[in-house]
Amino acid sequence: MSFDYDLFVIGGGSGGVRAARVAAQTGATVGLAEEFRYGGTCVIRGCVPKKLMVYASQFSEAFEDAKGFGWTVGDTSFDWGTFIAAKDKEIDRLEGIYNKNLKAAGVNLYDSRAIVTGPHEVTLSSDEVITAKTILVATGGTPFVPDVEGKELAITSNEIFDLKEQPRRAVVVGGGYIACEFACILNGMGTEVTLLYRGEQILRGFDNEVRDFVAEEMRNKGVNVVVGADVSKMEQTGDGIVVSTDNDQTYTVDQVLYATGRNPHSANMGLEDVGVKLGRKGEIVVDAYSCTSVPSIYAVGDVTDRVALTPVAIREGMAFVETVFKNNPTSPDHGLIPTAVFTQPEIGTVGQTEEEAREEGEVDIYSAAFRPMMHVLADRSERMLMKLIVSKASRKVLGCHIVGHGAGEMIQLAGIAVKMGATKEDFDRTVAVHPTAAEELVTMSTPTR
Fold first, then answer.
1. Nearest to 290 by CA among 274, 275, 305, 280
2. What is the CA radius of gyration of the chain?
3. Of 96, 94, 40, 92, nearest in space to 265 by CA
4. Beta pairing, strands 114-118 & 121-124
5. What's the whole-model pTM score?
6. DSSP collapsed to 3 states, the chain
7. What is the biggest distance separating any 2 CA atoms in the chain, rounded to whole angstroms?
8. Do the Cβ atoms of 211 and 201 come closer than 8 Å?
9. I want to staple 177 with a disulfide (CB 3.0 to 4.6 A). Which of 59, 97, 324, 341 is the partner?
10. What is the mean pLDDT of each run of 10 residues along the chain (449 residues)?
11. What are the pLDDT digits (tens) for 308-337?
12. Cβ(385)–Cβ(368) under 8 Å?
């Protein structure tokens, strides 16, 4: 058969863009459709603008701490509009780079929604029909808001980046990393924040000691962390949005941000009509090589609901190209992925939690909580946590967890060691870099339990 393209990609986010560009570099003819903006969730309304907000929110403490180091700091204030304008300028610049790089690689771009109308066929919103030998779906995920009375009054992580004014008071609903990050961001910018989570502790799925540690530090910084409570309804009043909870509490705020999870963005794409199998949440079911139940259709990234992280989507896109266009069947490696959570204090983690490790065998736990040097002169009580989980049998470091300033930077390098199978003795043989907080990773000598 003759096709318009060797590959047609639906979705211009991290996974789709990388797959399209690298496939084109092999000599394949490639088309890509994106209905919103190039860069996807990460660049437009996720990782990048969020990290810029994290940086902005951290200056409030930096100004306070500077006094302890001899600096005279005058009156300070935060202007939301100035920040949003600067953020938008940077996002526009990055989107332009994505667009330029795709075109430079020879990818034909379609600013359009696309649906799958056959094993080798997609139809654009203009009704143009395009054929391709292989179709790659990389449409990402979308925020989920439960069906609660007044849900139309809430926003999600999609909309917060475009608010015209900073809310004075806010309720953030959810206990995952997105909810906790935005609670900390808004708090650092001066918003009065309540975090509502229905579970018994925030950050489900993370190491329990880390969860407890971060929750305590968030409260110390002024975030009202309320667990065991969920929203029962929201009502608009003259004074703001009244949020009622199932434990008979009410909060009157200017903004309600829901961060209660994300669902794969696969609805109304024609996938099931052509035989592509979807899971319970709408995730596209794929095999180890990202192939769907239709041999000519593949999927990568958050729409597959495997590991919803930008670098993982990129790796999956690269593995797809190796498999389909380089005759080198490659399965993306989802093991021992280092992860950063930009709460305040931030989290860096790789490998197993203590709870997971104990289910598989006997372990030694090395843990240290301390006030780092940077907080001493500032007279800030905030502590750091360093934790290693070590197998008693093999002495391998099964998990590394860091909470505190620079945790995300540290875990990238610690992740290399854990991925390589380093033992506790390998850590011990490494000379400490002094004076740093990170030296605790190689100086903890006695198990705490």
1. 305
2. 24
3. 40
4. antiparallel
5. 0.95
6. CCCCEEEEEECCCHHHHHHHHHHHHCCCCEEEECCCCCCHHHHHHCHHHHHHHHHHHHHHHHHHHHHHCCCCCCCCCCCHHHHHHHHHHHHHHHHHHHHHHHHHCCCEEECCCEEEEECCEEEECCCCEEEEEEEEECCCEEECCCCCECHHHCECCCCHHHCCCCCCEEEEECCCHHHHHHHHHHHHHCCEEEEEECCCCCCCCCCHHHHHHHHHHHHHCCCEEEECCCEEEEEEECCEEEEEECCCCEEEECEEEECCCEEECCCCCCCHHHCCCECCCCCECCCCCCECCCCCEEECHHHHCCCCCHHHHHHHHHHHHHHHHCCCCCCCCCCCCCEEECCCCCEEEEECCHHHHHHHCCEEEEEEEECCHHHCCCCCCCCEEEEEEEECCCCEEEEEEEECCCHHHHHHHHHHHHHCCCEHHHHHHCCCCCCCCCCHHHHCCCCCC
7. 74
8. yes
9. 341
10. 96 97 98 95 94 97 95 94 97 96 97 97 97 98 95 96 96 97 98 98 98 98 98 97 96 98 95 97 97 98 96 97 98 97 98 98 97 95 97 98 97 98 98 96 96
11. 999 999 999 999 999 999 999 999 999 999
12. yes
Q: Length of the chain in residues, anyone?
A: 449
Residue matched to tokens 């143009």: 128
Tell me the C-alpha distance between 154 and 168, whole Å.
15
Question: Out of 334, 375, 405, 434, which one is annotated catalytic?
Answer: 434
434 among known catalytic residues: yes
Q: How far apart, in whole angstroms, are the C-alpha atoms of residue 295 and residue 285?
A: 12
